[in-house]
Amino acid sequence: MEQIMIKVDHLTKEFVSNKKYKGLKGAFKGLISFDKVKKVAVEDVSFNIHKGEIVGYIGSNGAGKSTTIKMMTGILMPTKGTCTVNGIVPYKARQKNAQNIGVVFGQRTQLWWDLPLSETFSILKEIYGVSDEDYKERMTFFNQTLELESFMESTVRTLSLGQRMRADIAAALLHNPKVLYLDEPTIGLDVVVKDRIRVAIKEINARYQTTVVLTTHDLGDIEELCNRIIIIDGGKLIYDGTIEKIKTLFGAKKTVSFDVKDTKPFEGIDYRKRFGLSEDALSYELHPSEISFCFKKDQLHFTDLMNEVAKTSEIRDVKMKDTDIGDIVKSIYKHGMIEE
After folding, report:
1. Count: domains in the chain
2. Which is more confidently placed, 26 or 101?
3. pLDDT category, 340, cuts 50, 70, 90?
4. Cβ count within 10 A of residue 33
5. CB 215 within 8 A of CB 105
6. Tens digit of pLDDT for each residue in 137-174?
7. 245: Cβ contacts below 8 Å, ≥ 6 apart
8. 247, 267, 296 - which closes a domain
9. CA triple 188-189-195, angle to 5 deg
10. What is the distance between the alpha carbons of residues 53 and 146, in angstroms, rounded to a whole number?
11. Are residues 152 and 42 in the same domain?
């Protein structure tokens, strides 16, 4: 039976603030008013994450991702519901929980700005009580996966963004935490560094069975690293499942472009009428030397479409692609709660 590492049960977080009024009179009124405004950042969210999983926790800005992460790390206390990480209630036992987790925020660093990177790791070794043997073994592994050696003696302030992110990931993992929270770990990085960090995360997960919770707007991270995603919107959980499942539910469309010898004969052809399909099931656009179609795979076969196009003009090339996870997630953000 798989071990549940993170258990979130009906988690809710409300923030209460003083009501603000417009203008100068409003400012004075605000000083003596006791009116309050309640904002629900996370509402009745429940999920389990098992040991060794890499889970993408995604949502648009203001959806409640960071608030959930802060409750899981012990920074915030839930208004309602419960959260346990490796059997610990984070906000009740912050120090004990800190021994079990590593956290990397893309826009912040836990490294000492004016110290050489090697000294930062030495300090963290003492803080977490890492033995000499474990420290040597882990640093050797981090040097292999994250390629830290070339800048180990550089002060943190002189590191590039990519170097700092690699160092931050190593620092978060130095004490071999059971759970690693990654908040936008590849933001602002070039393609080469992104790929290196993704490979490192997969190797760390495989070697140490580290449970990884990844929040990101880079859907390349999600497709490369995660088998499962949890989507939150407006503080509510709207999807929890595999990427393949969500592609099956919402990725039912295929896009195909035909490079044709002559596009003029296609002008005025109504392909929806020809195939008896709705606008939702089939859409198409005419471009110079190309006609492109987007259609539901369960209502139209590609071969039928290709044969129809071939009747009108010679086909020189064909490009096809299924709906990718980025398009699917954007659609979900627009339409809200998922109903299977």
Report:
1. 2
2. 101
3. very low
4. 13
5. no
6. 999 999 888 889 999 999 999 999 889 989 999 999 99
7. none
8. 247
9. 145
10. 21
11. yes
